[in-house]
Amino acid sequence: ICIVFLIVAAYIVIQQTKPLEFATKTLAKETLINDFKETGKIEANQQIYITPKYSSKIIFIKEDGDRVEKGDLILELDTSDLVTKKRELSANISALSGQEEMSIPTLYDSQLKSLDIAIQLAQKQVDELSQDNDKYLELYKSGAISESEYEKINRAYEDAKKALSLKQNEKNVLIDQSQEKSGSKEFYSAQKTALSVQMSDIDDKISQSEVYAPLSGIVTNVSAKNGGFANSTMPIMEISASDDIIAVCDVLSSDALALKENQKVEILQKIGEDTVKKSGIIIEIGKYAKTKMSSLGLEEQRVEIKMKLDDVKNIIVGSDIDIIFETLRLDNVLIVPKSAVFEYENDKYVWKVQDGKLAKAKIETGHESDYEYEIISGLSQDDIIIIEANNAQLKEGIKVKSKESK
User: Fold this and answer.
1) What is the structure's pLDDT at 103?
2) 168 by DSSP, 3-state: which?
3) Which of 95-104, 241-250, 333-342 has the lowest mean pLDDT?
4) pLDDT at 365 over 90
5) Which of 121, 141, 235, 387 has the fewest beta carbons under 10 Å from its own?
6) pLDDT (tens digit, 9 = 90+) per residue, 34-85?
7) How confident is the model at residue 240 (pLDDT cuts 50, 70, 90)?
8) CB neighbours (10 Å) of residue 201?
């Protein structure tokens, strides 16, 4: 019994005097970094919007994703209606010239009857087309027919009205000539000038029926196809410069204040199961903040940041990326984990290992990151500290055994 008692007593004494093992860190000069991550997109730095010069049927158009070189044909519009209209205008000019050359202001009944018949026929056509135009308009509004089908009947209706107006003008001209009114020469000149202006406008549109790429790049956002209808009031495609790619994202306005142009960033792109890291620099910081909704439904003030990539290999325009921004970098400073610091009476302390025993060390901190403090005073290089300060076993003076944390 005495032997057992002595063994137990010896074991208790040994256990009480045995050093406790804790995770520790030996201090060395390091780099303190504070950063944040935002999601962004890869975009072309230069984008050109292509809008047709006039509304017409599409004969040829490039497709989404097509690569083009500067000067390549990207869009061709149908010119048959324009050519027909130009011939009509040319005929009208010839007719006006012939009328102007008539030196005898004689008006024959047969001429009036012929024009009246032509006017009646033209009026009848206008009335019929007016009904068709109204009917097609209702069908287009209801979605029963396409815009191109409605535009076709509408153009026919407008042409019929112009033809009617022309015949009426011809009759008025004949009547004016028979009355030998003054200013007939100026009248014909003005009429021919107006028609010539219309012909010049048609020539300008015909010359622009073929559209060529203004720069080398990738065709995106094509909103029509071959055989479809091009609307002159809306862009029909974009061309994004393939050799000028940037990363774009929105950051909180408070974070944007800590960023500077030419500052380096790290860009992360997911490719399959791997994450590829690329570097870049900030080339533009927005001058104003935009209100956006967060994923939690809260309003945020965000600023657009544009970045140039050092390497654009395997980068696809439109792909999602993560961007890491540094707001603080201090090289060659002593830093301790925030988990190693505890507060006592409004001062900061760490547990320091000295000669195998534990002692409280009062510290003064400077800058901080999300996980670390910069040490201003209270510790030196090669000092050993406990990493996790919130441990009930930690008491001043106890023996400890260091377990260096990597």
Assistant:
1) 46
2) helix
3) 95-104
4) yes
5) 141
6) 899 999 998 888 778 899 988 899 999 998 888 888 899 999 999 999 899 9
7) confident
8) 15
Residues 309 and 44: beta-carbon distance below 8 Å = no
| Burial degree of 333 (CB within 10 A; 0-12, 13-18, 19+) | middle
d(CA 326, CA 255): 10
DSSP 8-state code for residue 371: S
| Residue 150: C-alpha distances to residues 55, 76, 123, 128, 294 (Å) | 12, 21, 21, 15, 44
- Count, residues in the chain: 406
pLDDT > 60? residue 104? no
Residue with tokens 């009930």: 392
Burial of 186 (0-12, 13-18, 19+ CB in 10 A): exposed
Helix (H, G, I), strand (E, B) or coil at 60: strand
Residue 249 near residue 323 (C-beta atoms within 8 A): yes
Encoded tokens for 137: 């308009």
CA angle 365/371/377 to nearest 5° reads 15
Phi, psi angles (nearest 5°) of residue 221? 50, 50
Q: Which of 22, 36, 131 is nearest to 395 (CA)?
A: 22
**Distance in angstroms (rounded) separating the CA atoms of residues 384 and 389:** 13
Distance (Å, whole) CA 169 – CA 121? 15
Beta bridge partners of 282: 307
Please write the tens of the pLDDT for every residue from 152-184. Answer: 888 888 888 888 888 888 878 777 766 655 667
Distance CA 322, CA 146 (A): 43
Give burial (CB, 10 Å; 0-12/13-18/19+) of 110: exposed
The whole-number pLDDT of residue 169 equals 86
- Higher-pLDDT residue of 335, 10: 335
Cα of 140 vs its chain's centroid, Å: 32
Rounded-to-integer distance, Cα 81 and Cα 271, Å = 51
CA nearest to 286, candidates 328, 321, 252, 322: 252
Q: How many CA atoms within 13 Å lie on the side-chain side of 41?
A: 8
